[in-house]
Amino acid sequence: MSMQRGQWSSRLGFILAAAGSAVGLGNIWGFPIQTAKNGGAAFVLIYLALTFLICFPVVILEIAIGRRTQKNPVGALDELAPGTPWKSVGMLGVLSGVMILSFYIVIAGWVFGYFLEIATGGLQRLATDGEFSTFVGSAWKNLIYMGLFMIATVAIVVGGIKDGIERWARYLMPTLLIMLFALIVYVLTLDNAGKGIAFYLIPDFSKINIKVINAALSQAFFSLSLGMGALITYGSYVSKQDNIISSGFIVTLFDTFIAFSAGLLIIPAIFTLAPETTAETIPAGPGLLFVFIPKVFMNLVADIGYYPASFLGAFFFLLICFAALTSTISLLEVPTSYVVDQGKTLRKKAAMLVGAAVFFFGLGSMLANGASEFFTQFITYPKGGPPVDFLTFVADIFFETSLPLGGFLLSTFTLFIWKTKNLNEEISQGYPDYPGSLVEKLITTMLHVAPFVIFFIFINTVLAKFFGITLF
Ligand code: PFF
Fold first, then answer.
1. pLDDT digits (tens, 9 = 90+) for 340-358
2. Angle made by CA atoms 326, 10, 4, in degrees to the nearest 5
3. Separation of 377 CA from ligand 1 center, angstroms?
C-alpha cells in the first residue's frame, strides 16, 4: 500500500514540497493586501505572534496525523477514531481544497496572463491606471489562462509524489527567493521607500482591534496551508526517520519569511509610486500586486530600456506563477488522494475528475470581476451592505472561515480524542529525545491553548463577516 502511495525521496524533499505548498499567492498577493487593509505593522506583529504560538502546533499535529496513518485526511481521522463523525473534519478539508482551488486558479490565471502579456510587449499598457479592471473583466482571456493553469496542475499531480511535485518545488523555490530579493533591494533605493518601511515596520498599537486579529489568523492559516489536511496529506508521504518538529518549523519559518519579504517589496513600492499615500489612503484591493508591480518595472525603463525591463517583469510574474503552481498542486492533491485512497481509483483518473470539478466551480469566480453581473453582485450578507461577488463569497467561506474551523477541530481532536500521548509517540519517531524535552513542554502548552484561541477568533470572524456583529 505505502509503495503505491509514494514517499518523499528525502527530508529535504518534504520540506521543499511543504514549503512549496505554503508559499504561494497567499504570501505574495494576499499578505501585502491584508497588511495594507489592517493598519500595517500592527497587523504584521499579530500575524507573527499567531503564526508561531497558535498555528505552529497545528502544523506539527497535521504532519504527525498524516505520517501516523499514511492516509488522506478523511481516512486518517477514520483510522484514529473509527466509526465516529470525526472523519467529517477530513471531508470539510477535502471540500475546502476543491473550493479554495476553484478561486485560486482564477487569480493564478491573472498572474499567468500578466506574465504572457508583459513577455509579449504589454508592460506599458498593464502599468496604466484602470488596466487591471479591464483585464479581470474579460471572460474569454481569463478562461484560457485559468484553463491552462488547471491543466498544468493536473499534469503534475498525475506525475505523482517524487517525480511530479517534489521535482518542481526543488528548482522553483530558490529562484523565486533570489528574484524577490533583487527587487526589494531595487525598490528600497527609490525615493520615499522609507515612508513605506515606516508604515510596514513601526506599529501603531491603536490600530489593533478584533478585525485585525481575525484577518491575521485567517491569513496565517491560509498561508501555511493549514486547517484542511494538506499537511496531513503531505505528512502521509514522510518517512518515519524524519524529525517532524524541525521540518515543520523550517516550513513555518520559510513561509513567514517569504510573506514578510513580499510585504517589504510591495508596501514600499506603493509609497514610492504614490508618495502622498497615508495609512488612511493606502490602496488595499485585490489589484495591489497587479497595479503596482508593473509600474515598478516601468520605472526601470528609464535606466535599462523597455525590453530588458519587460523581460524582468515577465520573469517576476513567471516566478509567482511557479509559487502558485506548487500551491495549486497541494490543493489538488488533498481531494485527489482522498479519491485514490477511498475510491480505489487510479491517480490519473482521480486528478482529472477533481480537476474538472474545480474548473467548473472556478468559472463562477472567473466571471465575478465584471464579466457577469450575476456573479459580480452575487450575494448580500445578512449584515447588509453592497452585494459581494462570487469569488469573495467563496473566499469568505472557505478561506476566512473553514480553515480556522478546521484548525480548531483538528487541535480539539488531537487533545481530547487522539491524545497528546499518541501525538508525542509519533513525534518521537525520528526525534527520540522529544519526550520530556523543553520543546515538548512548549508544544504541549501551545497545543492546549490553541483550540480556545482559534475558536474565539473563529466565532468573532463569522459574526463580524456575515452578520456585522462585533463582540469586542
Ligand atoms: N498556502 C497557499 C498560499 O499561501 O498561497 C494556499 C494554500 C495551499 C492553502 C494549500 C491551503 C492549502 F491546502
1. 887 778 889 999 999 999 9
2. 80
3. 26
